[in-house]
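F.,

This is the one I mentioned.
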C-alpha cells in the first residue's frame, strides 16, 4: 500500500496541472531537502501524471476549462523516484452548466416559491364532491377558489385507502395511503400535505381527470 496521497482539492480544469505540481512539491519538500529525491524527479513525476490527466479531461471527457475537478491518487517515493499507484486514482468532475441552460429553471423555481408562500397563506381544504359506482368517495382539493387536486377514498374495514394527485404547490401523486376514518378531513389534509410523490405536471393532471370521470 502506498504511503502518501496527493489530493488537489477542487480546482478548475484550466489550472489542474499547476495544482498537481505545486501540491506534489509541497508534500515532498522535506524529502527534497534531505536529498531523498531530486526536484527534477518530482517535476518529472508531476508531468507524467499531468499527461495522463490531460488525456482523461481533454481528449476523453471533453471538459471545458471552467469545469471543476478533484484528483486523488496515492504514491510512494522509492529509489529517488515518485511511483504513482494509478489503481488508486480517483477523479471527481463537476461540470459547469451554461447560464442559458439554467436561467429558466431559476425563474421557474422562484415562481414555485411564490406559489408555496401563497399556499401557506391560504390553507388547502378538502371538499366531498360525489361517489363512484363502486361506493368510493371523490374529493376535490382546493386552495381558495382554485381546484388544485383530486382524491378518491375507498372505505375498507373501518379505515380508508386514499389515492389522487395535486398540481400545486408542486405536482405530486398520492399512491394508496391508509387513513383513519375518524377526523377524516384532518387525515386527508395530512395526506395531501405530507404523502405525495413528486411527478410531472402532465401525469398529475391526467390522474385528476381520471378521478373526476369516476363520479357517478
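My design for it:
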Amino acid at each position: 500500500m502506498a504511503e502518501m496521497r496527493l489530493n488537489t482539492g477542487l480546482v478548475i480544469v484550466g489550472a489542474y496541472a499547476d495544482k498537481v505540481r505545486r501540491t506534489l512539491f509541497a508534500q515532498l519538500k522535506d524529502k527534497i531537502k534531505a536529498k531523498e529525491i531530486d526536484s527534477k524527479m518530482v517535476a518529472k513525476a508531476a508531468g507524467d501524471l499531468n499527461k495522463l490527466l490531460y488525456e482523461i479531461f481533454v481528449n476523453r471527457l471533453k471538459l471545458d476549462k471552467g469545469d471543476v475537478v478533484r484528483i486523488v491518487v496515492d504514491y510512494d517515493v522509492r529509489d529517488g523516484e515518485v511511483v504513482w499507484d494509478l489503481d488508486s486514482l480517483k477523479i471527481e468532475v463537476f461540470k459547469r452548466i451554461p447560464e442559458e441552460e439554467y436561467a429558466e429553471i431559476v425563474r421557474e423555481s422562484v415562481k414555485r416559491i411564490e406559489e408555496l408562500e401563497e399556499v401557506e397563506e391560504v390553507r388547502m381544504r378538502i371538499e366531498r364532491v360525489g361517489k363512484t359506482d363502486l361506493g368510493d368517495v371523490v374529493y376535490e382539493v382546493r386552495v381558495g377558489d382554485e381546484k388544485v387536486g383530486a382524491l378518491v377514498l375507498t372505505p375498507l374495514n373501518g379505515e380508508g385507502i386514499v389515492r389522487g394527485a395535486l398540481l400545486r404547490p408542486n405536482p405530486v401523486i398520492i399512491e394508496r395511503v391508509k387513513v383513519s376514518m375518524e377526523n377524516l378531513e384532518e387525515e386527508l389534509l395530512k395526506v395531501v400535505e405530507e404523502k405525495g410523490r413528486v411527478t410531472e405536471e402532465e401525469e398529475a393532471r391526467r390522474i385528476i381527470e381520471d378521478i373526476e370521470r369516476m363520479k357517478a
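The beta strands are 4-12, 68-78, 81-94, 124-131, 137-143, 146-156, 159-166, 172-180, 197-198.

Talk soon.
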